[in-house]
């Protein structure tokens, strides 16, 4: 039923297909969904409703979908997220990206305790607080990049105890307290590129493996992140590199990108603790390197572009 210019759906459309497992209504002209549309669809596991004109959903529309695991609502016209998902006890992935969402009501995620992945990027959100993700205890992946977030209030990570991947890139976080990530102890992947950041606290992220901080305003970076394998901090005004980026004795870092950081001086001895380093991207900086330090690394490849 995808890509058929469908604009309306009868409430009993699926009455004779009670064993329906997969439903795709993507790329149509649907604006409204009847409250009783899924009353006979107890076996549904996947619903695709992306690329429609949906502005709002009615509370209870998913009331019988206890087996639903994947719900795709991206590229619609949703403006406010409400507690529409109360009955979706098996929901694993919720995609509401590329809408016009500017508000997430309290308790929206309270009842979907098995939710693992939430995609809410490319919307209009301007703040999040300690109630925004209330109840989302099992959430592992949160992509909230490309919004208009300027305020993070209270302990927003209070319920995100199992989060392993967070993307908040392309938000203006210049006025956010540096310690807003404290408590995300299971986090392994963090993307914060193009956020106008000047400094950030990362000491609680003991399991962090991938960190992307490109296109910010960071002038100094030195952290004890022994588990980190990939650090991308290009296009920041570091200027001088005279302190270890990673000051752990047992650094796991393999990939380092410090290109286009206006570096006019690098004390390469500060890299000697990075014994696992394999790739160093350093292009776009007005410096030359001392070859004796490059030869110190067995597997190191240096890229000047």
TrEMBL record:
* PROSITE patterns tied to this protein: LRR
Pfam families named in the record: LRR_1, LRR_8
Xref: Gene3D superfamilies: Ribonuclease Inhibitor (3.80.10.10)
Tell me the keywords, alphabetical order: Leucine-rich repeat, Repeat, Signal
One GO location term (cellular component) = extracellular space
What is the protein named?
A: Uncharacterized protein
Organism of provenance: Brachionus calyciflorus
């Amino acid at each position: 039923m995808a890509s058929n210019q469908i604009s309306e759906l009868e409430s009993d459309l699926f009455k004779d297909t009670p064993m329906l497992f997969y439903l795709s209504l993507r790329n149509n002209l649907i604006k409204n969904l009847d409250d009783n549309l899924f009353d006979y669809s107890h076996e549904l596991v996947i619903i695709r409703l992306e690329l429609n004109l949906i502005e709002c959903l009615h509370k209870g529309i998913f009331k019988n979908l206890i087996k639903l695991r994947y719900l795709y609502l991206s590229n619609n016209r949703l403006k406010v997220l409400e507690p529409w998902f109360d009955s979706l006890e098996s929901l694993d992935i919720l995609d509401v990206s590329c809408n016009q969402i500017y508000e997430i009501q309290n308790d929206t995620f309270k009842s979907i305790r098995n939710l693992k992945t939430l995609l809410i990027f490319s919307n209009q959100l301007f703040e999040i607080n300690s109630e925004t993700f209330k109840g989302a205890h099992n959430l592992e992946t949160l992509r909230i990049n490309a919004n208009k977030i300027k305020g993070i209030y209270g302990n927003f990570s209070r319920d995100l105890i199992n989060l392993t991947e967070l993307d908040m890139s392309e938000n203006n976080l210049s006025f956010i307290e540096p310690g807003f990530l404290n408590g995300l102890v299971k986090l392994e992947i963090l993307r914060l590129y193009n956020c106008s950041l000047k400094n950030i606290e990362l000491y609680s992220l003991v399991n962090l493996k991938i960190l992307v901080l490109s296109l910010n305003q960071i002038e100094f970076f030195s952290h004890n992140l022994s588990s980190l394998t990939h650090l991308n901090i290009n296009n920041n005004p570091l200027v001088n590199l005279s302190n270890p980026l990673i000051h752990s004795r047992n650094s796991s870092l393999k990939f380092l990108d410090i290109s286009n950081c206006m570096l006019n001086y690098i004390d390469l001895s500060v890299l000697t603790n990075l014994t696992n380093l394999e790739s160093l991207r350093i292009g776009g900086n007005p410096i030359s390197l001392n070859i004796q330090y490059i030869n110190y690394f067995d597997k190191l490849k240096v890229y000047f572009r």
